[in-house]
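so my prof wants the structure for this chain in the tokens format not the other one, which i didnt know existed until like an hour ago. anyway here's the sequence
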Amino acid sequence: MPPKPLIDLSSIDLDTVRFDATALDRYLPQKHAMRQLHGVLHLDTEEGYAVGYRDVRDDEFWCEGHFPSRPVFPGVVLVESVAQLCVFYWRHQVGIEQAPGRAMLFGGIDRVKFRDAIVPGQRVILVAKATEVKVRRSRYDCQAFVEGKLVFTGEITGMLGPSMPEIYPDGV
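here's what i got, hopefully its the right format
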């Protein structure tokens, strides 16, 4: 039996993008093919969660080989997608003010379960619920949904990374 959703997605406007790719440039160090979070739909800092999305296309680098004639979105790319949502939340909450110009890196991935395949043409709704947000470390319960169905659960820990003036030239 799958776990309960972390939030009620029916209470979120899943059609309105609050932070698009251009806005994400301020929050995420990943660029080009490594940008796996395509937008943020909802941010609730009082309740401690963010909802984002990742559109899976049929022209992505992994489609030809994972798997030939039947592409399946790689689990590691899904984990990266939701981790970027966690970085967005961390930088929005504490990073820009308390660790300007610094990155948040992977510190751990725990209790990961993949519950269904994701294929090109699908939109993946990502949820990150903060359980601990500090400058040096943050933790999130995470889920992903496709067409309302839970396809991923896991816990992601982030740790404070290096200063990146080449990514954040204005120091934020």
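also thought this was worth mentioning. The chain has a mean pLDDT of 95.
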